[in-house]
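FAQ

Q: What does a record look like?
A: Structure on top, sequence underneath. For example:
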């Protein structure tokens, strides 16, 4: 059978939510079926309104192409490249003219489109629905016609779009495709489906330590779903996990660490999984600081704003000499290092006690010198060692 699944390169990464369907396609490849992946380089410019409450901004063709380039590499971390056909919507929609659009839209009514929940809800609430959004299900359906799909795969939120494909195939005289809907993977926030636009996703191309850490940040309630949808752990073991979780006879962290190793090994290697596991234990369980986890920061970088306000500034520091920095300098440093999104967020980290200087929580000002260790806690824990040398950075 010809098995179809489409992906819109609206962002550059494929995430674990996509992997749920890709893993099922890989299993079906192994028993002889043909997988056809559709790169939605046209529909991505519109944006799938599934679950959306507002009209989505359109992407440029250049943005879509740049995102799609990463998809080509990431698809084949899961599916077998030798048994996969990749088709770009440009192959057929690039030749569409206005008469083709009119012919396609004439096959469906507005009432049929408003049967879709998100359209119906927005219409009844008086919220805008762009004509381009009404076109999205029709374009996805036309994909099925062009490749003569036997089965279309998608998440449960794709039910309407996939059924439109069935209808269109029947209208043009093809055998209607079957629809295979996969469960939606809840994202790292533990509330909404994993989504690039929501930012609650784990990308398949993330470094092992980041992937491991994000899995460890999942709510305990998601552990079993992730095992079932993303790993090859046998059903017998999963049932044992369920019983252990229900009876509270196991620490959920042990299962989560097993899950994190399984996922990292799948997209990197068993060695990378063990290394990420060891790093997590050092930093988050034993709270050790080892040399390779420490980044160096120059004294001049920390004192840039002091130098701006001082005729003498702070330059090269003799060993043992210290200087004082305030919350403003420290907050600016956290933002520059990407550990806080804004100065306000950085100040909240400092006020919350997640920033320490030589093991002491920062309150107001801190004394810093050559060799001082600055530790930033939270989900993105980092260690910095202050080193002297060089003139003040006055950029």
């Amino acid at each position: 059978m010809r098995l179809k699944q489409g992906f819109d390169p609206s962002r550059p990464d494929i995430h674990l939510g996509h992997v749920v369907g890709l893993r099922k396609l890989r299993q079906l490849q192994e028993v002889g079926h043909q997988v056809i992946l559709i790169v939605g380089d046209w529909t991505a410019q519109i944006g799938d309104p599934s679950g959306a409450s507002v009209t989505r901004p359109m992407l440029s063709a250049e943005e879509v192409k740049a995102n799609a380039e990463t998809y080509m590499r990431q698809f084949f971390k899961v599916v077998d490249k030798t048994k996969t056909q990749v088709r770009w919507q440009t192959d057929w929609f690039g030749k569409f003219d206005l008469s083709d659009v009119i012919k396609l839209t004439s096959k469906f009514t507005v009432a049929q489109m408003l049967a879709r929940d998100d359209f119906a809800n927005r219409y009844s609430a008086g919220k805008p629905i762009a004509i381009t959004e009404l076109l999205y299900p029709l374009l996805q359906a036309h994909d099925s016609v062009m490749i003569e799909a036997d089965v279309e795969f998608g998440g449960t939120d794709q039910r309407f779009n996939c059924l439109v494909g069935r209808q269109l195939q029947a209208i043009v005289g093809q055998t209607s495709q079957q629809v295979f809907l996969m469960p939606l993977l809840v994202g790292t926030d533990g509330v909404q489906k994993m989504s690039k636009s929501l930012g609650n996703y784990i990308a398949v191309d993330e470094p092992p330590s980041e992937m491991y850490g994000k899995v460890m940040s999942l709510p305990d309630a998601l552990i079993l779903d992730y095992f079932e949808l993303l790993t090859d752990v046998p059903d017998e073991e999963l049932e044992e996990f369920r019983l252990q979780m229900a009876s509270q006879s196991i620490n959920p962290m042990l299962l989560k660490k097993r899950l994190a190793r399984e996922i990292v090994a799948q997209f990197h290697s068993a060695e990378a999984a063990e290394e990420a596991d060891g790093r997590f234990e050092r930093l988050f369980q034993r709270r050790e600081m080892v040399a390779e986890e420490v980044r160096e920061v120059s004294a001049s970088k920390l004192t840039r704003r002091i130098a701006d306000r001082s005729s003498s500034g702070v330059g090269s520091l003799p060993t043992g000499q210290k200087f004082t920095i305030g919350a403003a300098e420290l907050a600016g440093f956290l933002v520059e290092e990407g550990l806080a999104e804004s100065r306000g967020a950085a100040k909240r980290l400092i006020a919350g006690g997640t920033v320490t200087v030589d093991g002491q929580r920062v309150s107001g000002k801190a004394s810093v010198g050559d060799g001082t260790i600055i530790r930033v806690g939270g989900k993105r824990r980092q260690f910095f060692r202050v080193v002297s040398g060089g003139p003040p950075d006055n950029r």
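Q: Is there anything notable about this one?
A: The longest strand covers residues 2-7.
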